[in-house]
Design a protein that fits this description.
Elements: H1 2-60, H2 66-98, E1 115-127, E2 131-138, E3 144-154, E4 161-172, H3 175-178, E5 190-191, E6 194-197, H4 199-211, E7 216-219, E8 222-226, E9 231-234, E10 237-238, E11 244-255, E12 261-273
Parallel strand pairs: 1-5
Antiparallel strand pairs: 1-12, 2-3, 2-6, 3-4, 4-7, 4-8, 9-11, 10-11, 11-12
Length: 276
């Protein structure tokens, strides 16, 4: 009898202990649940606060005006246009690089000059009555030479003045040697050569002009000018194309102290028709 009582007592004690443990655990679960609910409530409050702050910032930030919206749209369009132009330029450059180089156009020949210009610029001391020979150009006809002669003299009726007689002569090339003017020969358009001709050789030249075939005087103008004063002699003819042919001679005579010689500064320009 005694043993069953002991077992019963132990069973009751075990139930009491188990009940106490269950109660203790239940109190812990309730406390943890309360803490979890509190944490959830805190998180919800924080979310609510963040939403309110976001709405406040959105309300404070000003909206773009109509003008600003239009300007923004314009800038976007400009960026798009520039990008399109850049792409097009890149395509053009690529095509140009592949294109073979263009041939250079043939040079246009310069038109033929309607006249041939011959010039002579000389300065020389010439005794009165002597002639200054200049030029020596090849003439328009084969074997011909053109030579200019200028003879200074004084005029008793015009004291202090100088009379200048000019002659432009076309003659066969071979006659230059007979007159001692072989050094005047030139194949250039410009000449700076000159030679003196005494009265005897000048008279021989004039006689040849009358008797020798192929000798002709192209022009023989005279001009009277004051000592040291420039003068111009022009014997030109207008052509249908608007040009002028013939000689233009600029002369400045300066008598020396003795009155027996003249310093002649001569600029002669002769325009000849160009052979077609």
């Amino acid at each position: 009898m005694r043993q069953p009582r002991i077992i019963l007592c132990l069973s009751i004690a075990a139930n009491i202990a188990l009940t106490a443990c269950v109660l203790f655990l239940w109190d812990g679960v309730k406390a943890a649940r309360a803490e979890s609910l509190s944490a959830i409530r805190n998180l919800r409050q924080q979310v609510d606060d963040l939403e309110v702050a976001a709405k406040s910032r959105a309300a404070v930030k000003p909206a773009l005006s109509d003008a600003e919206v239009l300007e923004l749209a314009r800038l976007r369009n400009e960026v798009t246009r520039l990008r399109n132009e850049q792409r097009a330029a890149a395509l053009t450059n690529s095509a140009a690089a592949r294109r073979p180089p263009a041939l250079a156009p043939a040079p246009t020949p310069s038109p033929a000059q309607p006249v041939t210009k011959l010039t002579s610029n000389v300065s020389a001391q010439v005794p009165l009555g002597h002639a200054l020979a200049l030029g020596g150009w090849a003439g328009p006809e084969p074997g011909q030479r053109i030579v200019g002669f200028i003879t200074p003299a004084t005029d008793a009726s015009s004291p202090g003045a100088v009379l200048l007689e000019t002659r432009l002569v076309s003659l066969p090339d071979r006659l230059l040697d007979r007159l001692g003017l072989q050094d005047l020969r030139t194949d250039q358009a410009g000449s700076q050569s000159a030679a003196g001709l005494d009265p005897a050789r000048l008279a021989a030249l004039l006689k040849l002009a009358e008797q020798e075939a192929g000798v002709s005087i192209l022009s023989s103008p005279r001009v009277l000018t004051a000592n040291g004063q420039a003068a111009t002699v022009s014997v030109t003819q207008a052509q249908p194309d608007g040009t002028h042919t013939g000689p233009v001679i600029k002369l400045t005579p300066t008598l020396d102290a003795t009155g027996t010689s003249v310093r002649l500064d001569v600029g002669l320009e002769l325009n000849l028709p160009t052979n077609p």
